[in-house]
Amino acid sequence: MKLVMAVIKPFKLDEVREALTPLGVQGLTVTEVKGFGRQKGQTEIYRGAEYHVSFLPKLKIEVAVPSDLVDAVVEAIASTARTGKIGDGKIFVLDVERALRIRTGETDASAL
Predict the structure, then answer these.
(1) How many domains does the chain have?
(2) I want to staple 19 with a disulfide (CB 3.0 to 4.6 A). Which of 49, 76, 79, 84 is the partner?
């Protein structure tokens, strides 16, 4: 099993979710986060005053999937979250040692 963690622009969430559903992804976790990468934030104007926003709003998506689905899930996220502009985000793939569904006690792949 793998955990696919993606940090994307907030307005891309619905497209990413719609792209993952046909692949068999049954659930995902979304967290509102703030951060910066190479763009180092941005400058905005508010009531005529210019100020620097260091941390930009992003969404972190976490999806636990069987190992054989990882490439398809990563490609689906990458292709739908891509705008071609700086700040599109990142995708990380981590190993999951164990999973447990609390309600039923199912473990590993059956717990997903």
Answers:
(1) 1
(2) 76
